[in-house]
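It is worth pausing here to work through a concrete case rather than discussing structure prediction in the abstract. The textbook approach is simple: state the sequence, then state the predicted structure, then interpret. We follow exactly that order.
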Amino acid sequence: MMNKRVLAAAGFLTAAALTLAGCGDNGADRQAKQESAEQIKQEQTGQEETEQERAGLEETDSGETPEPAQPAVEEPPEPEPEPEPVQLKGTTVSILGDSISTFEGYQAEGCRIYFPQFGEVEDVKDTWWQQVTDDLELTLFANSSSAGATVTGDSTGTDDPQCGCNEFHTDALAGPDGACPDRIIVYLGANDLLETVPLGDNDGTRPVKEGEITAFSDAYTLLLDKLQKKYPSAQIYCCTLPHIGDWGTQTPFVELVNGLGLSAKDYGRTIAKIAKAKGIPVIDLYHCGIKIKNMHEVTSDGVHPTAAGMDCIADAVKEAVAR
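Step two, the predicted structure:
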């Protein structure tokens, strides 16, 4: 019978032999095992990708996959409503001016008349203001225009037709029973230019006391203040001056420049500045078509329009009033 120690030693040797046999696999065997594992992994990954592709194809075929989002298209803004046309027919208008706006039988009592006794306008239908009232279907309330009138003078006068900013003229623009006209058109300043009235420096924001007014800008500011106070619901329009030619020139006209070196353009700029300060629309007559180069056709003397010149003024006024 074998000794127990011999048997134990034999068992140990057997286990060691087995362990050595396991650890003793060569490098080729290990590499083969690793490659086999990697191949299995790649096959599994390939199967997963194939399944995903198949799923994608099935979704596409079923039509369930949403189409790519289209870029958002901005809605165009809604157009602003067009302003309603000005209602002119049957509305009323009054005129405040000088000789250019006169015609016998149509002026306020006491005014001095120029047409048709003088100049080349023989029919009232040819005057600029009658064309405006006829073509726009307005009703004329009053025409307080007087030949030779300036804007400057004694603003308190009640019977002097030669000062445009006085009580005589500003009170004469009302209709029957003192009714307020819907519109007032002011066309003054040519005589201030011709009489070399200084412009002054009022921009329409400085109040002017009543009395003898000697600066054009002060008188024009006071005039507009009085009109806005007396006729609060009236729409007032202020006309600048057209070109004015050297008085009585028989040869081609040149621009009239007064003793202060001022022309119609200078007085017109002052009118526009003051009117804008008061929020009053300006009618540009400096570019209405009366020019130095056509002065012999559109005026009789460089100042007073012919029928053709009246057409130029009327067209500019109609365009402004009908806006």
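Step three, interpretation. Residues 299 and 305 are 4 Å apart (CA to CA). The chain is about 40% helix and 10% strand.
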